[in-house]
């Protein structure tokens, strides 16, 4: 990894019922627009599908705002905007997907030539902090990084915050379902569950995802 991710985008894509398969095909095209150093300031890019839902998402990270702007103005985003009305049940909320990356672990193991970079699955976790606990949640997520660093089967992990809200998130990706299961049973997950009542408005919103494609720098 040449640079540390500091900001990002998380954009859910709600497929029309008759276009679920077509969205997957489109995201494969999107992957081709991200390869070959076409966006040198996009550090990581992931295309995923939510488990048991007609929902996909794109998650990407950047070191600088210039990289995020270049991505939003780039070929992949242009293709999404051009096809959204045909493929999606609602317009993608790019502005609402802006996020800050508070902490991250990026230790990919897969072959660079593999579309998925050796990844098969992941988790998306949304956390809504109590109004008076925002700073505590931020500090907790930053402090969880050493616990995640100790997880050999968790190669990629991001703690994120949606600016101007009390919403935080965790996004992580795994080579195997067993790696995901180990993470859910690990010390970081235990620490989070122990703090739910104290810090959060309610239980974490957790979704399992299938990795369709990834580019990593």
Quickly describe the structure.
With 217 residues, the protein is of the alpha+beta class. It is built from seven helices and eight strands.
Describe the protein's architecture and organization.
By secondary structure, the protein is α+β, with helices and mostly antiparallel strands. About 35% of the residues lie in helices and about 30% in strands. The protein has an eight-stranded antiparallel barrel, surrounded by four helices. A hairpin with a 5-residue loop joins strand 6 and strand 7. Helix 1 packs antiparallel against helix 3. The longest helix has 15 residues. The relative contact order is 0.21.
Topology:
Layout: E1 7-14, H1 20-34, E2 42-50, E3 55-62, H2 65-72, H3 75-87, E4 98-106, E5 121-128, H4 134-143, H5 145-149, E6 156-161, E7 167-174, H6 177-184, H7 187-199, E8 205-216
Antiparallel strand pairs: 1-3, 1-4, 2-3, 2-8, 4-6, 5-7, 5-8, 6-7
Helix pairs in contact: 1-3
